[in-house]
Design a protein that fits this description.
Layout lengths: L1 H16 L7 E5 L6 E5 L30 E11 L5 E14 L4 E15 L7 E18 L7 E6 L2 E5 L6 E18 L3 E15 L5 E18 L2 E14 L5 E16 L4 E15 L14 E10 L1
Antiparallel strand pairs: 1-2, 3-4, 3-15, 4-5, 5-6, 6-7, 6-8, 7-9, 8-9, 9-10, 10-11, 11-12, 12-13, 13-14, 14-15
């Protein structure tokens, strides 16, 4: 008899756990103490928060990768605006299908599109071009689960190939990759989240004159995000980026500090929208004593990301 009573009390809690992660829920004792009941809405307190932290921090990333078996379409639009003189706009669009193969491992093949508009920028040739840029394959492995450990940690790697230089808009053969350590932590359960990222990217480029060049970047990124309600998260992000000549962070070229607001919204149960606008507030190019590095980086960088969960 005791076994039957225990099983009956466990059934509602199990049903709650089967709800989609997009919904806020909890199982709490009723006023009469008869057993757990389901509560929905912003006032609910969950044993496990209902936030997917991957895209709530702007350019910075959380450690979540989705649940086993999930398939997701992501379209990420990154805009780069402004040099010291002239007019410069560069837009890159990366479309990916994400396949979460296990609770700890995900792959995401993708194709990219580039649009470049350059006019009157010193040391750059005027150009207006839109083109399919290249392809990439992203791998993510979750090392630490933030629900079970003091913080979450996911390792990221994304080799890629481009046929268009997204900086100049001209044809090129570019082979590169990026690596990252993505860490996050809940500072206030289900409400305040923090992220810390380390990024490295490097590539080899061959231009139309068959001349090869190599470059790399290293970035340290941090962000805070606050959940206002079940559908909207707002935050702020800071990034420090260093540019180098050579694949191994060989010869320092310049650095930049970006700061900007972030947002993440659930438009429906399956559709999410997130983004940020970052402004360069500090930095300097190695060969230019003037404030800000507008040789290696842009004055503003923005991102708008669309996600659809199948």
């Amino acid at each position: 008899m005791a076994t039957l009573i225990a099983a009956a009390l466990a059934m509602p809690a199990a049903a709650a756990e089967e709800l989609p992660g997009w919904l806020s829920y909890t199982a709490t004792p009723s006023a009469r103490g008869a057993g757990p009941t389901l509560e929905q809405g912003p006032a609910a307190k969950a044993d496990h928060d209902d936030v997917d932290t991957e895209h709530i921090f702007g350019f910075s990333m959380g450690s979540d990768i989705g649940k086993k078996g999930e398939i997701e379409l992501e379209i990420e639009n990154v805009g780069r605006f402004g040099r010291r003189f002239g007019s410069y706009t560069g837009v890159g669009v990366l479309s990916q299908f994400k396949f979460t193969l296990t609770d700890n491992f995900r792959i995401a093949p993708g194709v990219s599109f580039a649009s470049t508009q350059i006019s009157g920028v010193p040391d750059m040739v005027d150009n207006r071009r839109n083109a399919i840029a290249g392809a990439s394959m992203e791998f993510r492995y979750k090392v630490l689960d933030r629900d079970e450990m003091p913080f979450g940690l996911t390792l990221h790697a994304a080799p890629g190939w481009n046929r268009v230089d997204e900086l100049t808009g001209f044809d090129a053969q570019i082979y590169g990759t990026e690596f990252a350590a993505l860490m996050d932590k809940e500072l206030i359960r289900g409400t305040l989240f923090a992220a810390f990222n380390l990024w490295y990217s490097g590539g080899a480029s061959r231009d139309l004159a068959n001349s090869w060049s190599h470059d790399s970047e290293f970035a340290v990124q941090g962000a805070l995000s606050y959940k206002l309600n079940p559908t909207l998260i707002l935050g702020v992000e800071a990034r420090y980026v260093r540019a180098y000549e050579g694949l191994g962070l060989d010869r320092f070229s310049g650095d930049a500090v970006y700061i900007g607001p972030t947002f993440s919204a659930h438009l429906t149960e399956k559709i999410g929208l997130s983004g940020t606008w970052s402004t360069q507030v500090a930095g300097q190019a190695c060969k230019d004593p003037r404030h800000l590095d507008l040789d290696d980086f842009e004055r503003h960088q923005a991102m708008l990301r669309f996600n659809y969960l199948f």
